[in-house]
Amino acid sequence: MMHASLDASAAVLAERPMKAKESATSTVKDGAPLESTIAPESGAGQVFSSTGSTRCPAEMALVEDRVCVDRWESSLVELTPSGERPWSPFDPVDGNERRVRAVSWPGVIPQGYISGRQAKMACAASGKRLCTSDEWVSACRGPEDTTFPYGAQRQHGVCNDDERPVHPVAEIAALLEIKSEELWTTAMNNPLINQLSHALLATGERSTCTNAYGVFDMVGNLHEWVDDPNGTFRGGYFMDTTRNGEGCKYSTTAHSFGYHDYSTGFRCCMDPEQVD
After folding, report:
1. Do 118 and 97 touch, CB atoms closer than 8 A?
2. Fewest beta carbons within 10 Å, which of 51, 166, 256, 275?
């Protein structure tokens, strides 16, 4: 896991967050190009390399010629006196909000356990911002304006929304003998939840969960916070993309902007470079 830029135009220098099977204690080494340490999974890099825009950083897609949107759900890197290093995507950032910033890369486990307020700060630390709800929906629906990124009708297995037979919170609670009254409160932030098999996937692993803009996993995988101080996350996650709307219409407003659990993630937006 090493320092390097995604592309000269991206000017992003940060250590890579963990892949799905890497340990949170993996050693970080400096100096090697990112391309040699990240292999975009399931063809994610093919869309990434073919739909770029000089008006957006390389890790972002230009949507409706008006906003740059991260192609992949965000991960975090920690800012230290000696450089940047991956922040475990299984750990909350409570009390460490000013020590992390957001990055968007393929083939890595995205950050869960993060609130809307914390996500907004992480985007800002990278010179970006949380997407507005309208920007997020436009990116999700794609230039064809469909209910799902890939089309008008739900297709099984295209995005990570298969719904495990055993709820992940219940599975962890049983394994750890967590009290029933804690099941849907403190247990919701247990770091083991997103490490279960057949649950959270690496960014871009479902390579067809995309559209012509080249944004991935906007339905399923993790909920994604948008810029609403009252608290809204969109898109559903790996256990639910139907209960609060279908596909790109999915919207949860039941929690405050300061809430987080294993299912809450985010991606960032920014304004594109102006055309002379």
Report:
1. yes
2. 275
